[in-house]
Amino acid sequence: MKCAGGLLLAISLAGSAEMSTESDRPLPLGLIDDHLNLVYSVSDRDATERFYGDILGLDRISDVDMPGDSYMVRFIAGESELKFLSGGETPPTMDGDLLAARGLRSLTLHLPEERRAGIVARIEKAGIAVPEFSESDTGPIRFSRGTVQDFDGNPVEIVFSSQSSPDAGLDQMQIGLGVSDMAATGEFLRSVLTLEPIETQGDVHRYRMGKTQIKFWHVPVERPAWVGRPDEMLGMSMLQFVVDDVPAARDLVASRGGKILAEPFELGDLAVLMFVEGPDGIVIEFGATLVR
After folding, report:
1. Which strand (E) or helix (H) includes residue 10?
2. SS3 228
3. In the CATH scheme, what architecture does the domain 4-93+227-289 have?
4. Nearest to 153 by CA among 224, 215, 233, 78
5. Residue 73 phi/psi, 5° resolution?
């Protein structure tokens, strides 16, 4: 657990700190950034670069050479980082259907409507099934929603909006979870991780941490829990919090009833890290740069 997940965060902590936002009020758990990050394990680095870079047109940030045969590709979604780890043996995969398993199950990207035609054309040219878009509106803003799968079968919901305004959510990333207990998941997000409730009724509940929204739906407990560190599974593996004090965050999480999966530890001279186990075994990583 400490090697694959911990090193992945530590190498990119400095870059995250450079993008941090100033605030007069400390963010929950000592967060440096007002968003969360998402970690994937992927089978094909080149295919990942094509899908998220060439096809979807997300902004690329510096790649990272990892020890051994591994490599990390990074993109920005809204203001959050998507981190894709490839190399070594390809871990097992899981059906991309949202109800097939519990765990981290989907990504939602908000993009301006003017990019829709180009993205759809590139999806079609790549031989990927073009999604069927549904239309909705909120006041003067019109939204088009459709779900496409990347080359590893991970669902990516694309939301195109007709206006580039703050209400359009273009700086927001959404992460979808399949969970066995909606009430327990909401309590964990609210009471342990201090996320703000947005929608707590209906089939999909939503909570927010700054520019990141977590949404979740019910999956029967009999379905497999597709969770673990990047070297144990293919697809979405971890949520990441970048904080200024890992031991302090650890004490807060523990005092609120959170399960500490790995106590704070130093990874060389790069970072202090810890792991928390969330609903249905979802791995949540906390990290801070190590100051000597």
Report:
1. helix 4-18
2. coil
3. Roll (3.10)
4. 233
5. -110, 135
